[in-house]
Specification:
The protein is α/β, with parallel strands linked by helices and 238 residues long. It has helices spanning 11-49, 62-65, 170-177, 207-237, and strands at 54-55, 69-76, 82-84, 94-103, 109-118, 137-144, 164-165, 181-188. It contains four helices and eight strands. Helix 1 packs antiparallel against helix 4. 21% of the residues are buried.
Length: 238
């Protein structure tokens, strides 16, 4: 007569396995969603890259205009520079240079991410002198809802001209500067011969990494389930 193995388990291993399987599946699903979100953004970026640069209108809608290329004519407000720390580029530690730009046509302001510069390796708080064009000029850039965020420890520094900070919220900048600025930034793409790099990271970067993480979490859930089943059968046979 054939012996049919009977599966038996205890409460603690069952509860632990259920937790790991649930966690793994949930995180795998979340990582897949993040990958799909970034791929949707990539499609928007590519679609709007093919559109010629346009002028900013007073009633611009950031939801409709994000990643759109724009042309701005005006002048930089040199006495309100801001610097975003912990912004590496090509594996080198550096900072983003931010500066308001006063539009010529309506006296509104746009916060411009002018570019990237390496950080001083001897003194992280030291910022080299950066050339700023004078007078009315024309620049091109890409509309972004924010300047991105990095992991921040502790409180943010008070927003003052020349401050080196981790993250920057547009509303906080408007409140601190008292400048009537648009609620978005523009990443400058045109060259103004200031020595700054403008190889901006694409917002869709990392979708493949998210899919890899999704697979790892799903594999963890499957491994936990298989181990639980194998252990239960082995306990019965033993």
């Amino acid at each position: 007569m054939a012996i049919v193995p009977i599966f038996r388990s205890r409460l603690v291993p069952f509860t632990a396995t259920l937790f790991v399987v649930t966690l793994g599946c949930s995180l795998s699903f979340w990582q897949m969603q993040r990958a799909q979100q970034k791929e949707t953004i990539e499609a928007q970026v590519k679609a709007r890259e093919s559109i010629p640069p346009i002028d900013i209108s007073p009633s611009i809608d950031i939801k409709q205009m994000e990643y759109t290329r724009v042309t701005l004519k005006g002048e930089f407000v040199k006495d309100w520079p801001l610097y975003l720390d912990n912004r590496p580029m090509h594996g080198i530690a550096g900072i983003y240079v931010m500066m308001p730009f006063k539009l010529q046509k309506n006296s509104q302001y746009v916060l411009i991410a002018r570019g990237w510069t390496p950080r001083d390796s001897r003194d992280r708080t030291a910022i080299k002198k950066i050339e700023t064009p004078t007078g009315v000029i024309q620049i091109e850039g890409i509309v972004k809802s924010n300047s991105g965020h990095v992991l921040q420890l502790g409180e943010s520094e008070a927003l003052l001209p020349g401050v080196l900070t981790q993250n920057l919220e547009i509303d906080a900048f408007i409140q601190a500067s008292k400048l009537p600025a648009y609620p978005f930034i523009v990443e400058q793409t045109s060259n103004t011969k200031d020595g700054l790099l403008r190889d901006w990271p694409r917002p869709s970067l990392g979708s493949e990494r998210h899919r890899g993480y999704a697979f790892q979490w799903l594999a963890l859930a499957a491994t936990a389930l298989l181990f639980f089943l194998f252990s239960g059968l082995r306990r019965q046979n033993g």
